[in-house]
Amino acid sequence: MLKGNNINRRITSKKYNINEEYFKNIDSPEKAFWLGFFCADGTIRYVKNSVVFIIKQKETKLIELYKSDIQYTGPIKCNVIEKNGFSNNPYCYLQINNQKFINNLMNSGKPRYKKDLHNIPNSILDLYKIDFIRGYFEGDGNFTYDIRNNAWEINICGYYDLLVDIKLYLSKCIQREFGCIVQDKRSCIYNFKTKGNPIVNKIVGLLYTDNSYGIKQIKYKEGNK
């Protein structure tokens, strides 16, 4: 996939600095958020000893924030996926080659393969589980609006066990069961869905505060103006 998207496979130069210890201890909301985001939308290339972070170009605010947090001095690279002879789907990414950084990331709970993530990592203290879930949602979740029923819906995709863990934790936080987990008919991926303005509003209030990382709540807030 990376080759097809024209991502550089060469080892990043040692001249770039990075905080190798960033993921050694998940002791802040920001670290929990990025671990969640990476678990949803990060790629570890084990053979080439690198971490590749890919994100759509219109969302560069997040990748710039991530680069600042890990104190990485390398460049943000941009590319365009070509499909059927047309160039579209612009995206930006960081390519990080640092064994210690990768080891700390994996030891904190980011598996090489997404299917191997069965629950919220044990490295996440209860205090920061909401931040991890918000990070995961930013990578693999979305808000949609049902015009016919005038209702918002939250959808999070992933593998079954992790979604069950997320569902249980959120249900505990709002003190009620909600949502359902259904399998995508075309794959082994599942979707955790919940619909209805009152419950969606509760989840948004739980996940997002004025100072929390994330941008997907903007669509929801703008739609409620």
Topology (SSEs and partners):
Blueprint (H helix, E strand, L loop, with lengths): L28 H13 E4 L4 E7 L3 H10 L7 E7 L2 E11 L2 H9 L21 H12 E6 L4 E8 L1 H15 L5 E4 L6 E6 L1 H11 L9 H7 L2
Antiparallel strand pairs: 1-2, 2-4, 3-4, 5-6, 6-8, 7-8
Helix pairs in contact: 1-4
Which key terms come to mind for this protein?
Endonuclease I-creI, 225 residues, disordered N terminus, alpha+beta, 7 helices, 34% helix
Architecture overview:
- The protein has 225 residues and is of the alpha+beta class.
- The chain has a domain at 130-223: Homing endonucleases (Endonuclease I-creI).
- Helix content is 34%, strand content 24%.
- It has seven helices and eight strands.
- It has helices at 29-41, 60-69, 99-107, 129-140, 160-174, 197-207, 217-223, and strands spanning 42-45, 50-56, 77-83, 86-96, 141-146, 151-158, 180-183, 190-195.
- A four-stranded antiparallel beta sheet has the order 1-2-4-3.
- Helix 1 runs parallel beside helix 4.
- It is globular, with a radius of gyration of 18 Å.
- The termini are far apart.
- 31% of the residues are buried.
